[in-house]
Amino acid sequence: MNSSINENLITKPCVGCGFCCITAKCAAGQRLYKSSDICNALIWSDEDKRYYCDLMQLPGIIGDQYKEELYAGEGCCSNLNSWRKNVIKREVKKNKEIYNLDPMFQIFLRCLGREMFGGDSITLLLYSFQGELLKRNIDKNMIHVTTKLILHNIKNNRTKFNDEFMGGIEFKDERVS
Known about the structure:
Number of domains: 2
Low-confidence stretches: none
Order of helices and strands: HHEEHHHHH
Mean pLDDT: 78
Strand order of the largest sheet: 1-2
Oligomer: single chain
Number of strands: 2
Radius of gyration: 19 Å
């Protein structure tokens, strides 16, 4: 069992009931699908009659990283979860907006945030990005929300050193207003 999980905790194998993802998004779901009430990576399999995490289904190292972060294979530790006994497709309202960023793009932004780019460079890049989207007649609200999500991903992965040494990001979303 993973050493970061309480070893006295009684776990049972995951049955894919969806309880965790529907009632409380994991940290990955909160990062990736901030605007949704429940995790948009939650998928129902008609064939298997259970839920799966779409993030854990991603190929290669990306899927492996999500499996590690989400403790895949560690089991269910929610002993009061009655859903385990009745695994069905639940009717839940997903706020599946088109504004959620693709998980692979978010990984790219995470890497970009860690690099030694000055705040001015990132700010100029974001303004240029908005300008290109405006030229293509993309909805202004979509541009605003997408830019905000990109900025959120970059800022949350920048170190304090990058901000102090390379300058913080001073992006004001005025061009889209």
